[in-house]
Amino acid sequence: MKKQGHKVLSFLLYFFLTVIAFSCKYYNEDDLTPAPPPCDTTNVTYMNIILPIFNANCIVCHSTAIGSGGIILDTYTDAKVPAQNGMLWNAVSWAPGFPFRMPKDGAQLPSCDLAKIKKWIDSGVPQ
Amino acid sequence: MRRIILLFVFSQSILLYSQDSLKVQPKQSGKIIYAEETFKASRIILGQSVENPPNGVLTLLISHHFGALNSGFYNFFGLDQSSTRLGLEYGATNWLAIGLGRSTYDKTWDGYLKFRILRQSKGARKMPLSLGIFTNIAVNTLKLTTDRPDYFYARLSYCTQVLFARKFGEIFSLQLTPTWIHMNLVPTPQDHNDIFSLGAGASVKVSEVVSLNVEYFYLFPGQHLDGNKNSFSISCDIKAGAHVFQLFLTNSQGNFEEAFIGDTKGKWFNGDIYFGFNIHRMFTVKYPKAKKK
Asked: Which of the following CATH numbers is that of domain B2-287: 1.10.3720.10, 2.40.160.40, 3.40.50.920, 3.40.710.10?
């Protein structure tokens, strides 16, 4: 009986120590957290990239029908005006001193969307 | 592989030595007088003491920390907050205790083995100190709130301690506790997964039922434990029959080794002091053969 007890204890001890030996890892939060997907800013044109961003975030107020503040973003001809005079970038990048922060009463656009808008403006607002 | 071989040799030596040391006792011609009650309970305050429950005795341990004393009148100086560990500890033999517990802190489960290798004694066999080995696994069961993969291994941490204790005369006991904690997951690559610490605990017996204790865990420098502090606690133990009550003040919020040694944020001088208590209740589950008759 006593021997059997010792066998059980030996098994328990080896099991416990084996679990420790095989489950010992060297992780850290930074390495386990996946990196954000890379932001693709190649071939940024109004039709392909910029219009979907405007449709998702701006068209509620800045459509041809509403045209809040005289800004229209759902046609290329109208959208390139604020893009070229700096209003668009100042508004979406929340430039210090600029009176409007867009989207109005919302969170700032994701950094990848901002990078695409910047690239579109810097490359001459291609259609 | 080297770790596995080392563990095998280590565990084999524990088993052989422990069994052997017990077998040797009856063969001694003279009387061996063991140092009894080096500490009143199996915890000095938060940390393990060299004491184990006797064979066949099950201990229920309730360990409770309130919030910080400096949390103000609104939180009634910490009494509105609490962190609890409920634990069971069983003396499987006279040299091995098996324990299981669950803490509020990070919703952690912990299981452990505690070996009693040497017992301080005089008379026919002189042994200057008591020696124990403690090893545990803790599993954090908090729900993951970030978008990283939820590996089970990343929830595990381990603690191994060697407990050297000596009772000086009838009233004073001292223990040194070299500690190795391994955390499978740490916040940044600069943090060390292995943490080394040296603990020290002392107990002064005021009367047959009351003793005063102090305990400190020193974290060795250079382990990049951002904001971590050394754990320091003081307590008063009261023994009443099969109960031991420990009332303590500490700067640690956690009540298992990985938390209070590896993750103490409070500073005594800022008033980050937590009042708490341990209640140990012993139940004799298996009576010794002599008493059965």
From this structure: 2.40.160.40
